[in-house]
Specification:
Elements lengths: L5 E3 L2 E3 L48 E2 L1 E5 L5 E2 L5 E5 L8 H6 L1 E5 L4 E7 L3 E6 L8 E7 L10 E2 L2 E8 L3 E6 L4 E6 L2 E7 L12 E4 L2 E9 L16 E9 L6 E4 L18 E3 L1 H10 L5 E5 L19 H6 L6 E2 L1 E2 L1
Parallel strand pairs: 3-11, 5-12, 7-23, 13-21, 19-20
Antiparallel strand pairs: 1-2, 4-6, 6-9, 7-10, 8-9, 8-22, 10-12, 13-14, 14-15, 16-21, 17-18, 18-19
Length: 332
């Protein structure tokens, strides 16, 4: 299982995912588009940064930031990008200047770069994972900055966050295992099932978007089946849900697959299934930004903007959509 219905912070669905970052179709894979949906450039519900209006009259309509992720004061995983979403398109000719005014500082030097996903979302990602314990600040001094389309910034925004323990999960689809490590030490190996041949799971590395104790999932909302007599039909509320992609990949428990592992013949609709006890344990271990890397699936890697799968792009690919190229963080 793994499709979410309704529209909330974490997806199109009646489920509202706490601390959600992105808006889009929440679904456990399926056979539809590789993109996350019509809103796939958007970050989570209104986590706007601290801002103060300019006392002077702007030159034109305002350019505003819809969201900055991570939320200020949060502790995140080593694969978490800084994701900035603008309310209006930023022209290509203006992106270098906009990047220049989005200053990233860290408590230890980190090489990284901005990357544009379309004309509204820009992510800053380190070249390799963040060092655990790093304190990070993003200062977006947008006042008077043009978006190249007649709008000018009137606010300044600041977010500060901390990179927590280095928690990673490595999923082998063919081996039916998930290896969970913390700060370089293997903590536990869990039995899993991933997607079926018809609904394979995304490959690649996906940073945790958010997690929720319960999510309402239905096959009809994502076009798998609305026929209650179909073997692929489901309408369930399932527990211990760790959200991996905007298109709806989760690690969670499923009542249809209560004892996953190599002895279980049942595959999912794209999610990663754990037993009830393992799902609850894993839920308690992970946080936003922790990398979950899936290998052995028949499906391609998740698109980098399908949630926070930024590390699915090689560094050259990342720099190809950066206006100012690689740089090193300022000293915090």
């Amino acid at each position: 299982m793994g499709q979410v219905v309704g529209r909330g912070k974490g997806g199109i669905g009646i489920a509202v995912v706490t601390g959600a970052m992105l808006v889009g179709v929440s679904a456990c894979g399926g056979i539809g588009s590789d993109k996350a949906g019509g809103d796939d450039a958007k970050a989570p519900g209104k986590q706007s940064a601290s801002a103060s209006p300019s006392p002077t009259k702007p030159k034109g309509p305002p350019m505003l930031l819809e969201t900055i992720t991570p939320q200020t004061g949060s502790t995140v995983g080593v694969a978490m990008p800084i994701s900035v979403v603008f309310t209006n398109p930023v022209a290509q000719k203006a992106r270098a200047a906009v990047e220049k005014h989005m200053k990233v500082s860290a408590s230890q030097p980190v090489a990284g770069a901005w990357h544009w996903f379309g004309d509204k979302r820009a992510d800053w990602r380190p070249k390799t994972y963040w060092p655990s314990g790093t304190k990070v600040k993003i200062e977006a001094d947008m006042q008077g900055v043009s978006n190249g389309n007649g709008r000018y910034g009137v606010h300044g925004y600041t977010h500060s966050f901390t990179v927590g323990d280095d928690v990673r999960a490595d999923v082998s689809v063919t081996g039916h295992t998930m290896k969970v490590s913390k700060n370089g030490r293997l903590v536990r190996t869990l039995s899993i099932n991933a997607g079926s041949a018809q609904y394979p799971t995304w490959n690649g590395t996906m940073a945790v978007i958010d997690k929720q104790e319960k999510v309402h999932m239905t096959s009809c909302s994502v076009g798998i089946s609305c026929d209650k007599g179909s073997a692929n039909y489901y309408d369930l509320t399932l527990p211990w849900d760790v959200h991996l992609t905007q298109s709806g990949t989760y690690v969670h428990y499923s009542t249809g697959d209560p004892n996953p592992g190599s002895g279980s013949a049942r595959g999912s609709h794209g999610c990663v299934h754990l037993s009830m006890s393992d799902a609850k344990w894993f839920y308690g271990q992970v946080k936003q930004g922790d990398p979950v890397t899936i290998t052995g699936s028949a499906r391609a890697k998740a698109p980098a903007d399908n949630g926070y799968a930024d590390f699915n792009l090689g560094w050259d690919q990342w720099l190809a959509a950066s206006a100012s190229g690689e740089g090193t963080t300022a000293t915090l």
